[in-house]
């Protein structure tokens, strides 16, 4: 079974909440956390780009991860930014 790397952009209600969101994302059980970085948006606002490794042949795993990310407190949006096979 192959694996894929999925990158999501997570947007917070306020910039000061990004660290808490990152800790929650690292603790998710639905995917293997790979890496994260802050990305500037505009006017001092930032989003969090997070990467996760998922199995590529299991149906519904990507939707489950997206739902879990959107359920993190203070996350206003979880947007898929990229995907590639490993």
Automatic annotation (TrEMBL):
Domain named Translation elongation factor EF1B beta/delta subunit guanine nucleotide exchange: residues: 3-86
Which Gene3D superfamilies does the record associate with it? Answer: 3.30.70.60
- Similarity-based family: Belongs to the EF-1-beta/EF-1-delta family.
Write down the Pfam families for this protein, in alphabetical order. EF1_GNE (PF00736)
Extract one GO molecular function annotation from the record: translation elongation factor activity
The name this protein carries in UniProt is: Translation elongation factor EF1B beta/delta subunit guanine nucleotide exchange domain-containing protein
Out of the domains of life, which is the source? Answer: Archaea
Q: Which UniProt keywords apply?
A: Elongation factor, Protein biosynthesis
Q: Which InterPro entries does the record associate with it? A: eEF-1beta-like_sf (IPR036219), EF1B_bsu/dsu_GNE (IPR014038), Transl_elong_EF1B/ribsomal_bS6 (IPR014717)
